[in-house]
Design goal:
- With 386 residues, the chain is α/β, with parallel strands linked by helices.
- The protein is 44% helix and 20% strand.
- The protein has two domains: 241 residues, P-loop containing nucleotide triphosphate hydrolases (Rossmann fold); 113 residues, Udp-n-acetylmuramoylalanyl-d-glutamate--2,6- Diaminopimelate Ligase, Chain: A, domain 1, CATH 3.40.1390.20.
- β14, α11 and β15 form a beta-alpha-beta unit.
- α12 packs parallel to α13.
């Protein structure tokens, strides 16, 4: 069987790369393709029964209904321990590359399309000669580059990555683009890139449901003690640290939306200011201090959740931002919505091949089952040409 391989890389972490990859897998399955998945470098790590695993391959195995082992899907656990060892010369880049190729061949054996998810960013893996550029070369993969966009300066990184991937680059997909930047990108950025010979395959608008986490999910991930329930279904996309006086804090908080304020539980003036700002959807209190009943009563009245979290403010900010940045591709509902967005806003045919009509698909199936067919078994079908 001829296998097409598409590596989905990203400019930086938290561009929605996993959601895009799995959504493409779903769309390919709907077109009748047998789909495989691999993430050679496991970078989104969690501790799981003493082993460090990346959650993305686990989600792929579940949502794409794949019959394969985790060690095949994720040959390298790109953990801090691994990085330290690699820098000390304890890892052999050639052996690691050969291992990736070996497992790739096993996973691709019966697939029409292999989806390979890149590392956190396309440069991840450079210390062992396994950037996404290196992996695309080893696996003979086409490349889709996922990027975000806020201003024209973001195109610097896109151009640099496109040049690094060279002829393997199928195109760029901009994901999660804000309304404020959308027209500028379509009218200025896209023509500029295409004038440089860099195809743009889609501009996907930002959707709130894919851009943050609910207060309820945030509380669960942080292991927070919920002092005030409030609107636990509200979304949090960003965090503000309350470290100034009350009046300055209020002016600061009022300039944002869908935010959570993180401050010490003993900073009553900051908490009060946060409760006055309409864009603050939650307050996270650190340091083990519980505010006065009067302050909690005001939060209850305003319907703003208050979470109590152990640890100092900076460590809680790091933990909370990790939750938001990695919380977008965690369930089937997210992948279904991303599939719809790609169908509406991206050139899916350029990535997966044109959709076949029912008659064409039936003819293709009949041809492939014909024992008298003497054609080259490695020749691509219509669905393989992308």
């Amino acid at each position: 069987m001829h296998t097409n391989t598409l590596l989905v890389a990203s400019i930086q972490e938290s561009t929605g790369k996993t959601a895009v990859t799995l959504a493409l897998g779903r769309l390919a399955q709907e077109r009748g393709l047998d789909v495989g998945y691999m993430k050679p470098k496991g970078t989104r790590l969690q501790s799981n029964v003493g082993k460090t695993l990346d959650e993305d391959p686990m989600l792929a195995r579940e949502l794409l209904d794949l019959d394969c082992e985790m060690h095949q899907m994720e040959p390298i656990v790109y953990s801090p321990t691994f990085v330290d060892g690699a820098i000390r010369g304890q890892e052999d880049p050639e052996e690691l590359g050969a291992l990736i190729e070996e497992y790739f061949e096993q996973l691709a054996a019966n697939c029409g399309l292999m989806l390979v998810e890149g590392g956190g960013s396309w440069t991840t893996g450079g210390i062992v000669d396994l950037t996404d550029v290196d992996i695309a070369s080893r696996l003979d993969a086409d490349v889709l580059l996922v990027a975000d966009y806020e201003n024209p300066g973001d195109l610097d990184d896109v151009v640099a990555a496109a040049e690094a991937f060279g002829d393997r680059l199928v195109g760029v997909l901009f994901n999660g683009v804000n309304d404020a930047a959308f027209d500028d990108l379509e009218q200025q950025g896209v023509p500029f890139l295409e004038g440089r010979g860099i195809p743009v395959l889609g501009v996907v608008p930002r959707e709130r449901d894919l851009a943050g986490v609910t207060v309820e999910d945030l509380a669960a991930e942080l292991g927070a003690d919920v002092a005030v329930d409030g609107d636990s279904g509200a979304y949090v996309e960003r965090f503000l640290v309350g470290a100034m006086g009350g009046d300055a804090a209020l002016r600061y908080f009022r300039r944002t939306k869908n935010a959570a304020v993180i401050t010490g539980g003993d900073r009553a003036e900051i908490i009060t200011a946060a409760l006055e700002a309409p864009g603050v959807n939650a307050i996270i209190l650190t340091g083990g201090h519980r505010p006065s009943p009067a302050v909690l009563g005001k939060a209850e009245q305003k319907g703003v959740p208050v979470l109590l979290v152990t640890g100092d403010t900076l460590s809680v900010v790091d933990r909370a931002e990790t939750v938001v940045n990695t919380g977008r591709a965690r369930d089937e509902e997210t992948i279904t919505r991303m599939s719809e967005l790609l169908y509406d806003h991206a050139d899916v045919d350029a990535l997966l091949g044109p959709e076949e009509s029912g008659a064409d698909a039936a003819d293709a199936a009949e041809d492939s089952a014909d024992p008298e067919d003497t054609g080259d078994s490695d020749s691509p079908t219509d669905a393989d040409e992308a």
